[in-house]
């Protein structure tokens, strides 16, 4: 079985965040103390994924390379791909067809943040799945803004509808998709929607129709934040700040994840911490080194 690969979709122009995204990609905006993209990157790392494609725009690519490098400092391998125009989420599987080379994948949207007890175990279980796909549904107050899951009386998903005027449930599909190696081939069969995009819901519907899509509900103990508006960006920053200051541990910290997974050494972690020593983030990494005896 091929090793699962990761995709972070960090394209688009961030028009809902204008004017703050006129000069910087939305996914590089800060969510409290770190760039937004650290959070989805951390999710992929928690799932055990080390080969990751970053899809961005030609104008933003250099910023991402400067912010992230090639990933070796975190024990991962990052590759960069260009999305010339934002033509739908499912387009990612066409852009990354050669990168995936028939391997199963996990795609996450670059502006999504996930948090919850047991999240690593859920991610690793989904990543270990054979064939088909797994997506996660989350209860929201305005489901008409999202792709919404319809369930039958037994709780089995029967349809996924993009931004329905009359939502069949309050459960939205989150921006995290574990799909098998047929995703790129299936994406070629999708026709653009009425708004001219290759909808991710259309791709998921193909899996659903063949009976190979698992839809798992995230319960009350989980947080799923989408940071596409000024209000939600501020809410996400406050959420992370509250968690970190209350618990004294970092959320969305690639260095800590890499160290705890054995992908980087304690010496490497100490070196990174030294380079960030003037920030609270760096001091947190330094304290981690002290606790671990480095």
TrEMBL record:
Cofactor list: Mg(2+)
Gene Ontology molecular function, alphabetical: glucose-1-phosphate thymidylyltransferase activity; metal ion binding
Entries under InterPro entries matching the protein: G1P_thy_trans_s, NTP_transferase_dom, Nucleotide-diphossugar_trans
Keywords per UniProt: Magnesium, Metal-binding, Nucleotidyltransferase, Transferase
Superkingdom to which the source organism belongs: Bacteria
Reaction(s) catalysed by this chain's protein: dTTP + alpha-D-glucose 1-phosphate + H(+) = dTDP-alpha-D-glucose + diphosphate
Keyword Repeat in record: no
The enzyme's E.C. designation: 2.7.7.24
Annotated ranges, domain Nucleotidyl transferase: 5-240
SUPFAM superfamilies xref list: Nucleotide-diphospho-sugar transferases (SSF53448)
Protein family (similarity comment): Belongs to the glucose-1-phosphate thymidylyltransferase family.
Described purpose of this protein according to its UniProt entry: Catalyzes the formation of dTDP-glucose, from dTTP and glucose 1-phosphate, as well as its pyrophosphorolysis.
Name assigned to this protein: Glucose-1-phosphate thymidylyltransferase
Organism: Methylopila capsulata
Taxonomic placement: Bacteria, Pseudomonadati, Pseudomonadota, Alphaproteobacteria, Hyphomicrobiales
Gene: rfbA
């Amino acid at each position: 079985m091929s090793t699962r690969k990761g995709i972070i979709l960090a394209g688009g122009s961030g028009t809902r965040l204008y004017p703050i995204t006129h000069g910087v990609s939305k996914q590089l905006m800060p969510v409290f103390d770190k760039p937004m993209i650290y959070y989805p990157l951390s999710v992929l790392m928690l799932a055990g994924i080390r080969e990751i494609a970053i899809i961005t725009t030609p104008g933003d690519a250099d910023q991402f390379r400067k912010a992230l490098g090639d990933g070796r400092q975190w024990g991962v391998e990052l590759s960069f791909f260009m999305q010339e125009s934002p033509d739908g989420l499912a387009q990612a599987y066409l852009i990354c067809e050669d990168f995936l080379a028939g391997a199963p994948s996990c795609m996450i949207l670059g502006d999504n943040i996930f948090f919850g007890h047991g999240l690593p175990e859920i991610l690793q279980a989904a990543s270990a799945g054979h064939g088909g796909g797994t997506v996660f549904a989350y209860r929201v107050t305005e489901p008409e803004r999202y792709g919404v899951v319809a369930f039958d009386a037994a709780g089995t998903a029967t349809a996924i509808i993009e931004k329905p005027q009359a939502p069949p449930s309050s459960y939205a599909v989150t921006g995290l998709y574990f799909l098998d190696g047929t995703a790129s081939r299936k994406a070629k069969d999708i026709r653009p929607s009425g708004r001219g995009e290759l909808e991710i819901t259309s791709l998921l519907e193909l899996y659903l129709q063949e009976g190979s899509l698992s839809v798992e509900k995230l319960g009350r103990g989980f947080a799923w934040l989408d940071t596409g508006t000024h209000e939600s960006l501020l809410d996400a920053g406050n959420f992370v700040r509250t968690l970190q200051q209350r618990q004294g541990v970092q959320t969305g910290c690639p260095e800590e994840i890499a160290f705890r997974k054995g992908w980087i050494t304690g010496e490497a972690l100490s070196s990174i911490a030294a380079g960030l020593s003037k920030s609270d983030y760096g001091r947190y990494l330094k304290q981690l080194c002290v606790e671990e005896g480095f």
